[in-house]
From TrEMBL:
This is Activator of 90 kDa heat shock protein ATPase homolog 1. Its main location: cytoplasm. It holds the Pfam family AHSA1. The gene is AHSA1. It is found in: Cytoplasm, Cytosol; Endoplasmic reticulum. One of its GO terms (molecular function) is ATPase activator activity. Residues 174-201 are annotated as: Disordered.
Length: 340
């Protein structure tokens, strides 16, 4: 047996007044169940889809059973979550007729990828058939899956804040979240080496393209302009931490660092021009995004023009702006277009 003070330094805590788990050598656990319950409810109750037949929206989370936790062993974060959910949704046709339905998510867990999560949509007993069911099964399921994906991302980032790794020298390093591979992945990677994906190299000329989008929001140009430049509002519609310095030359960082850029020009209520990039793009490459806000009398039309988009990222960038910016803003602040 080692003498007092001569043991493995990873286990020595008697010299720390707070007896901190130095270097996180011991197994520790943080319960994320209550936080997860609140976050899932908030995300799912924001789901609303509109189509040619009418509108469908999630109105209640009637069952939310399960648990979530984060375990820390030797500086590695291991995530566990398992949930069973039932949601209620209401559909309203263009004629004003309402229909009641449900959504079942029997097994939302760390054992399955988001795309593998089973989501069942139906009408409650004795409800007549309606085309709104197809709308909810298609677009509603997609948005529910997006909400679940946002929850998982937030669990790995927001909830882990403060899980600091104390070093032997007393410095602190934020732990990088890691997921324990599923059984099938462990078998696949057991005899192979893997490398962390790196951004594409700098200095290589890449083909680029332009994109353009239009959308209409039920709000004034002044209010909609504020949504894009106010940090708290950006965090609200992206459901993720953000840093926004809304001045000429000011920088922004969105979606936990996935999107970054700089404001080139700001004309209140009229126009925003920014350098914009996604982190997987070639290092140092930015596109130029221009947003024009057009007053339509009670509505605002936004015209987006993007130049310098990597050609291989054209569709992903277009869909990203439509889904995570435009649809995210409508769902969060209720600026959806009118139905005729």
């Amino acid at each position: 047996m080692a003498k007092w003070g001569e043991g493995d330094p990873r286990w020595i805590v008697e010299q720390r007044a707070d007896a901190t788990n130095v270097n996180n050598w011991h197994w520790t656990e943080r319960d994320a169940s209550n936080w997860s319950t609140e976050r899932l409810r908030a995300l799912l109750l924001g789901v609303c889809v509109r189509g040619a037949e009418g509108t469908c929206e999630v109105t209640e989370v009637s069952r939310l059973e399960g648990e979530a936790s984060i375990n820390n062993r030797k500086g590695k974060l291991i995530f566990f979550y398992e949930w069973s959910l039932r949601l209620a949704w209401t559909g309203t046709s263009l004629e004003g007729v309402t229909y009641k339905g449900y959504v079942e998510i029997p097994n939302l867990s760390d054992e399955n990828d988001v795309d593998e999560v089973e989501i069942s949509v139906g009408l409650v007993k004795d409800e007549p058939d309606t085309n709104l069911l197809a709308l909810m099964k298609q677009e509603g399921t997609r948005l529910i899956r997006d909400a679940v994906s946002t929850y998982i991302s937030a669990l790995k980032t927001e909830f882990t804040q403060g899980m600091i790794l104390p070093t032997v020298n007393g410095e602190q390093t934020e732990l990088a979240p890691q997921l324990t591979p599923r059984a099938e992945e462990r078998k696949t990677t057991a005899n192979t080496s893997t490398a962390t994906p790196q951004p594409k190299s700098v200095g290589v000329k890449i083909p680029t393209c332009k994109i353009s989008l239009k959308d209409t929001f039920l709000t004034s140009p002044e209010e909609l302009y504020r949504v894009f430049i106010t940090q708290e509002m950006v965090q609200a519609f992206t459901h993720a931490p953000a840093a926004v310095d809304a001045d000429k030359g000011g920088k922004f960082l969105l979606l936990d660092g996935s999107v970054s850029g700089e404001f080139i020009n700001l004309v209140p209520e009229k126009q925003l021009i920014m350098k914009w990039r996604f982190k997987s793009w070639p290092g140092g490459h930015f596109a130029t995004i221009t947003l024009n806000f057009i007053d339509k009398g009670g509505e605002t039309e936004v015209c987006l023009e993007g130049k310098g988009i990597p050609a291989s990222e054209e569709e992903q960038t277009r869909q990203g702006w439509q889904r995570y910016y435009f649809e995210g803003i409508k769902q969060t602040f209720g600026y959806g277009a009118r139905l005729f």
